[in-house]
């Protein structure tokens, strides 16, 4: 469903990603790990078309999407939840969801089933809900577009443990759904390894590990090598 081959990309003259290969089958899961600033968000932005692609190819389904603008990729079924939480502050929860709607199985009712907190806040503006609820709304908006691939960029960042637990539960429900492929960028290593059977680790814009999450989890010294002290401390989560 998604294939990157030799992708080199960055911003303006700056190259951040170098020779990245990855592939994900329909309904597949992938965790993306790496220290701060190694290019995880840049990888997500490159998949959705928000960086400058210098070399390589990105295919989604049967099409090469490398030359397509973001909105075309989104219409083709790539849903993106950026680290910055993509909600319109002056619109209500319900309006935020409605304007993101495209035909398919995801409806407002279904999003409210996934995130009951949002149902209770349907009339509140984007500014009148908590950070955790904004994250749920941002994910809900991506789902309303009825994607076949969902990119989640550090969705747990800065959220209280109780909200992290709620989000995790919703991700498990999405995973059970089966036909939605998900790429999860995470700083919480164990949480990501639990979520996805396959993982890649980035370091300075290159893929330095690609394989079974379990293999990484079992090899603590490899994990320390690839993710460093920061990864280790967050591995406790
Ligand atoms: N819009 C931009 N223009 C220029 N450089 C950028 C831009 N966005 C990110 N960078 C640089 O690209 C590099 C990779 O950043 P990126 O945000 O992809 O890393 P990350 O692995 O997601 O980090 P974090 O875990 O801290 O979110 C960093 O050196 C960053 O300064």
The helicity comes to 25-40%
Low-confidence stretches: none
Mean pLDDT: 93
Give the structural class: alpha/beta
N-C termini distance: 31 Å
Shape: globular
Named once each, the bound ligands are: adenosine-5'-triphosphate
Proportion of residues in extended strands: 25-35%
Query: Helical stretch count?
Result: 10
Number of strands: 10
H and E order = EEEHEEHEHHHHEHEHEEHH
Biggest sheet strand order reads: 6-7-8-3-9-10
From the alpha carbons, calculate the radius of gyration and give it in angstroms: 17 Å
Largest sheet: 6 strands, mixed
CATH H-level homologous superfamily name of the domain at 1-77 and 184-225: P-loop containing nucleotide triphosphate hydrolases
CATH level 3 topology of the domain at 1-77 and 184-225: Rossmann fold
Features:
237 residues, alpha/beta, 6-stranded mixed beta sheet, binds adenosine-5'-triphosphate, branched-chain amino acid transmembrane transporter activity, ATP hydrolysis activity, ATP-binding
Overview of this protein structure:
The chain is α/β, with parallel strands linked by helices and 237 residues long. It has a domain at 1-77 and 184-225: 3-Layer(aba) Sandwich (Rossmann fold). Helices cover 39% and strands 27% of the residues. It contains ten helices and ten strands. It has helices spanning 40-48, 70-76, 93-98, 108-114, 116-120, 131-144, 161-177, 189-195, 213-218, 220-234, and strands at residues 2-11, 14-24, 29-33, 52-60, 63-64, 78-81, 149-153, 181-185, 198-203, 206-212. The strands form two sheets. Strands 6-7-8-3-9-10 form a six-stranded mixed beta sheet, sandwiched between helices. Strands 2-1-4-5 form a four-stranded antiparallel beta sheet, covered by helices on one side. Strand 4 (52-60) and strand 5 form a beta hairpin. The longest helix is centred in the C-terminal third of the chain and has 17 residues, at 161-177. The radius of gyration is 17 Å and the shape is globular. The mean pLDDT is 93. The structure holds adenosine-5'-triphosphate. Residues 11, 14, 16, 34, 36-42 line the site of adenosine-5'-triphosphate (ATP).
